TrEMBL record:
Residues 70-127 form the Glutaredoxin domain. The keyword Transmembrane helix applies. Keywords: Membrane, Transmembrane, Transmembrane helix. SUPFAM superfamilies: Thioredoxin-like (SSF52833). Coiled coil: none annotated. It comes from Streptomyces sp. 900105755. This is Glutaredoxin domain-containing protein. The chain crosses the membrane at residues 29-50.
Amino acid sequence: MTRAWTLPVLFVLCGSAVATGLLVEGSPGTAAVLVLAFLVLAGVNSPLVFPRSIGAEEAQRRSAADGRPVVFWRPGCTYCMRLRVRLGRSARQLHWVDIWRDAAGAAAVRAANDGNETVPTVVVAGQPHTNPDPAWVRAQLSPPV
């Protein structure tokens, strides 16, 4: 769990250090802008941006029951962020598994990607798709016509 928060905490600490230096130099406006920028970076790279993660076994069980895809992701991954942002509100319909919090999820991703933890890996109907196009993922949410 702590690994998921390492990058956001580093952004907050670095932003605070830089802002403190700017305040000492007498630039409170610049310090405020930089603190805000570092806080935004911390928020975007935190697990808070993604829907609540569940375990891999639970995600696979739910996916088998409702047919919705499972997304394996990790905080700080720009491709995961791209997928999450481009899915918009429909991201909540997917089952999200944070591989840094779930060892079984990390193992499933390694099994699908020749031993690599390449994310996002989206599993649809038991078939893994590594870094798929967000439009394709959105289309998988629609019921077949």
